[in-house]
Structure formats: C-alpha cells, structure tokens
From TrEMBL:
SMART domains: Aamy (SM00642)
InterPro entries listed in its UniProt record: GH, GH13_cat_dom, Glyco_hydro_b, Malt_amylase-like_C, O16G_dom_2
Pfam family name, one: Malt_amylase_C
Family label: Belongs to the glycosyl hydrolase 13 family.
Record flagged with keyword NAD: no
GO BP of this protein: oligosaccharide catabolic process
Domain Glycosyl hydrolase family 13 catalytic: 14-406
Protein name in the entry: Alpha-glucosidase
Key words of the record: Glycosidase, Hydrolase
GO molecular function: alpha-amylase activity
Protein species of origin: Paenibacillus sp. AN1007
Organism superkingdom: Bacteria
C-alpha cells in the first residue's frame, strides 16, 4: 500500500468567506462569522477548510487581487481574528488551508506602486514589463477576463502583463528577489499555524510572455521545487494543492510526486471542460456525454495510482452548482445531489466540498444588474457588443457564471437566509425558503446527513482511501459504476445518471458477502434496476 498521509484521509471544505456568514450586519461574510459556524463543520466531519483569500485586497476580483499578503482585509476582520480562527478550528481538529495567489498581486500592492515609479526603481522588475508604443501591445496575449493582457503605463512608457484583470499585474518569477519575498511571506504564515495552502493558477508562474507561453512554461517545475523546498518542506505535514488547469496525468505526476518535492496534490480540470464546445471556452455549451465523463475520471483514477494524488471536486467558487449542472435541480434535486456525491466520494483522492454543496444549493437566474462577478460582467458586455442575442448570453451566464457559486450560504428561512442581519452583497437565491441548513439538519434523509455519512465511511474504511480503482459496466450508457479494492476488501459504487429507471445486471459483480453501506433510496432495492439518479455503495469481503 502506498504512503499514508493525513491529507489523503481527510475531506476538505471550501469556504468563500464573502458569502459564508456575516457577523456584523454589513452584508459581507467575515472571519468571526466562520468561527461561529465551526461547530456545524465539525458536525459534518471535515478535517480542513480551504479558505478563499482573506488578505488585504481592493476586491476587484474578490480577494484574488492581494495588496498585502501579511494582513487581513478589514472587511473580513483582523489578524487576531485569523489567529482565533486557526486556533478555534484546531480545537475541533480542523486545519486551515490558505489560498496563495502568487501569479499576480493587486495593482495597489506596494510592490506595484513602486514598480510604476520608474524603470530604475528596485521593484520595477517585480512585474513583467515590455517596451512598446502606445496602442500596439507587444503581442496579442489576452486576459482571461477579456481584452488584451497588456496595459500601457504612460509615465513609464511600457506595458505590463496582466493575465487576469488590469488590477492584477503578473509577478515576474524570473526575478529571484520576487521569489525570496514570497517565500518569507509563506514561512510567516506557516509559523502562524496554518495547515497548508491552495496555490492559485500556479501553472502560470513559468510563463514566457514573449513566446506567448502562459501555462506549463519551461521553468515551472524548477520554480515550484524551489518554492516547496524553501517553504512547505519546512512546515509540518502541510496539505498543498495546486490549481493546475493545463495538467495531464503526466504533468500531475511532477506536481504531486510522492517524494514531496512539489505539492501534495493537484486540482485537475479535465472533467470540468466536458460540457464546453471544443476549443471555445467555458461559455459555449454542449450537453455532458456520460461516456466521456467515465473516460476522463477513470483515466485520472488509474494513471495517478501510486505516482500522484488526486483532488476530487465538482464545485468551487468559479464553477456552477453541480446539482444544476449534471444533476437535476427540480424533481430529483435530493436524489441527484446525493448520487453525484456518492460517485465522487467513493473515488481515490481527497474530496473537496464547496460551501452549500452539502445542502444541495442550486444555480440562480438573475437579472444582469443583480450579478457582481468581474468575469461574468465582462463576458456580458463583450457578447452584447458583438451583437449576440441577449437571451443566448443570459443562458450561458445561468449555466456557467461564477456568481452561481457565490450567492450567500442558506442557513435558514429567516431574513436573508440567516446569512446577514443587513443586506447581502449579492442577492440570496430565492429558493432559500425551501433549501437551507436548518431543514437539512432536522431531516435524517437530507443531503447534509448523506454527506456526513460519506465522510464517516471514508474514516471507517481504508479501502475508500487507498483501494485500487476499476471501472465496471464500462459500456453502460446511463450508469457510472466502479469498484475499489484493497486486500480482501472491496467497495462497489453504482450511480444512475438518468432521471428514469434503467436496467443493470448488478449480480455480475455482487458477491454473496455484499453489504449495502449507503444508498439514496431507503425502500427495498430492486435487484437489477436503478431508479432515477439512484446511487448505492456496497462493501464486499472476497477471499
Ligand atoms: O482561477 C483561475 C482561472 O483561470 C479562472 O479565471 C477560471 O478560468 C475562471 O474562473 C473559470 O470561470 C483562479 C481563481 O480561482 C479565480 O477565482 C481567480 O479569479 C483567478 O484565479 C485569478 O486569480
Ligand atoms: Ca461582515
């Protein structure tokens, strides 16, 4: 069996602080709010919280534009609040995973403020500058949020690179001073007792702007190995996870080499692109093909075996709600949310739950003026200017907009879903009167309790953490099923992705020792069929 690690055995919960719990009525979630909900998270059973950025930031990209890495934004609280959160979470055996945004800073970061003062300023070379003539950028690199990735600074007579918004200038990792400053900042956080780090768009730091190489640049892994050696490897058993959009299994084996030279694990996104039209990006939609999903997830399950470690996720703060995306957020909301959870939590890797997923929270359909996200608003403007029909643009936003994930957490059916006593910074999903935590906690058949059970099963059965994966019924058009095997123990997971009953010769794989561990229907099981979105997990002991 492979090396045992706490971070392989745990389940991580992602908090988007703005939208989790407000404690002072200003409509924005904060650290004191999170502290007040730690008992809830302990009850759920998670072992770590990935906290989206809470450092000082002008909030142009809601915290992914940092102006001081070593202070907390007053909107979220103070450094003392952060220390209290680390301490209070620790008392409940929950570690805090910080979000490190190292590819870029805010343009309001003192480094950039200095960098803009002159070409001979010692901080100038902290960012990526290119000469040019106003109006003709060095090349046609574009920003993820739309438009050119180059911004002209008249005082300097140069362009700077920003792969995201103009308020997010890219750091120059080729400059060793940048790297050293970053390492001391990270070590300062390690001293404060954080449990690990999630590394934002880390695949971009090896970029070669002149050659229009952004992801997976030639020096990427050299930088990461240095970063890891100077920081993570000095800390105690940290969980480190890279956000690695362009990773293949081969690349993931570098990122999460078991020798610990880079990160613990990767977020890979291959499955996330499966409902996008080939080569067109996230907004141009096509239906999910279950066969492709089986292929992609199975490939990652088998190819990383013993050589790298997966993160398992459906959601994060950039992605639509999975129950609306690949489940059914109407009649079968509860069944399909549980089915999708079963599929993921039975796999090899560390599962991540995004806030509200455990309640079955859904996407929203707002008016354009009710949205807040910079990416979404840029997209709307661009497509409208190009003359796309508005209803088409809105369909894309309903399906893929990042604000789907960012509506306030639905705690109860009181004012603003119990998120704030004031007015939330973004409209609460109107379905909060039905979908909320209070209902979930009272109801033993709720999605919340189902997630609790999945988390508990992972603690009780080593085979769920370390077992070998095998896809079964590979040709079945409606069912995603697999086994996990460790010594004599075997888990079998079967999931129906259709909103109707389908046939399945389950007996082929079910041994006489089979015991049902968990299922999303509570009444009698038919032998050879699965009802709409039905999911089951069996345990077998084979000799
Ligand atoms: O996201 C990386 C990224 O590439 C996203 O912009 C992604 O393409 C998009 O959100 C898909 O909708 C990370 C963070 O998770 C995101 O919130 C930040 O906006 C981005 O980096 C910049 O820091
Ligand atoms: Ca607040």
């Amino acid at each position: 069996m492979e090396q045992q690690e706490w971070w392989k055995e745990t389940v991580v919960y992602q908090i988007y602080p703005r939208s989790f719990q407000d404690s002072n009525g200003d409509g924005i979630g904060d650290l004191r709010g999170i502290i007040s909900r730690l008992d809830y998270l302990q009850h759920l059973g998670i072992g770590a919280i990935w906290l989206s950025p809470v450092c000082k930031s002008p909030q142009d990209d809601y915290g992914y534009d940092i102006s001081d890495y070593q202070d907390i934004d007053p909107m979220f609280g103070s450094l003392e609040d952060m220390e209290a959160l680390i301490h209070e979470a620790g008392k409940r055996d929950i570690r805090i995973i910080m979000d490190l945004v190292l590819n870029h800073t805010s343009d309001e970061h003192p480094w950039f403020q200095e960098a803009k003062k002159g070409k001979d300023n010692p901080y100038h070379d902290y960012y990526v500058w290119r000469d040019g003539i106003e109006g003709t950028p060095p090349n046609d690199l574009t920003s993820t949020f739309g438009g050119s990735a180059w911004e002209w600074v008249p005082e300097i007579g140069q362009y700077y690179l920003h792969l995201f918004s103009v308020k997010q200038p890219d750091l120059n990792w080729a400059n060793p001073k940048v790297r050293q400053d970053i390492y001391s900042m990270i070590n300062w956080w390690i001293e404060k007792g954080v449990g690990g780090f999630r590394l934002d768009v880390i695949d971009l730091i090896g970029k070669e702007a002149d050659f229009k190489i952004t992801g997976n640049g030639p020096l990427l892994h050299e930088y990461i190995r240095e970063l890891s050696k100077e920081t993570f490897q000095k800390g105690k058993e940290l969980l480190t996870v890279g956000e690695t959009w362009g990773a293949t299994p081969e690349i993931a084996k570098l990122y999460s080499n078991p020798d610990g030279s880079e990160f613990s694990m990767v977020f890979q996104f291959e499955h996330i692109g499966l409902d996008e039209q080939e080569g067109r990006g996230k907004w141009d939609l096509k239906p999910l093909d279950l066969m492709e999903l089986k292929d992609v997830l199975s490939k990652w399950q088998t190819e990383l075996k013993g050589e790298a470690w997966n993160s398992l996720f459906w959601n994060n703060h950039d992605l639509p709600r999975i129950v609306s995306r690949w489940g059914n957020d109407g009649e079968f909301r509860v069944e399909s949310a549980k089915m999708l959870a079963t599929l993921l939590h039975g796999m090899r890797g560390t599962p991540y739950i995004y806030q509200g997923e455990e309640l079955g929270m859904t996407n929203v359909q707002y008016e354009i003026k009710e949205y807040r996200d910079i990416e979404l608003l840029r997209f709307y403007k661009e497509r409208m200017e190009k003359g796309y029909p508005e209803h088409e643009v809105m369909e894309s936003i309903y399906a893929k907009g990042r604000d789907n994930a960012r509506t306030p957490m639905q705690w109860d059916d009181s004012h603003q879903a119990g998120f704030t006593t004031g007015e939330a910074w973004i409209k609460v999903n109107p379905n909060y009167t039905e979908i909320h935590d209070a209902e979930n906690v009272q109801n033993p058949d709720s999605i919340f309790h189902y997630y609790r059970q999945l988390i508990q099963l992972r603690k009780d059965h080593e085979v769920i953490v370390y077992g070998d994966y095998e896809l079964i019924f590979p040709e079945h058009p409606d069912v995603f099923a697999y086994t996990r095997t460790l010594h004599e123990n075997q888990i079998m997971v079967v999931c129906n992705f259709r909103g109707e009953t389908v046939q399945l010769p389950l007996q082929e794989h079910l041994s006489s020792s089979a015991k049902l561990l968990l299922a999303n229907y509570t009444d009698m099981l038919p032998d050879n069929e699965l009802r709409a979105y039905e999911a089951r997990m069996y345990l077998m002991q084979n000799n």
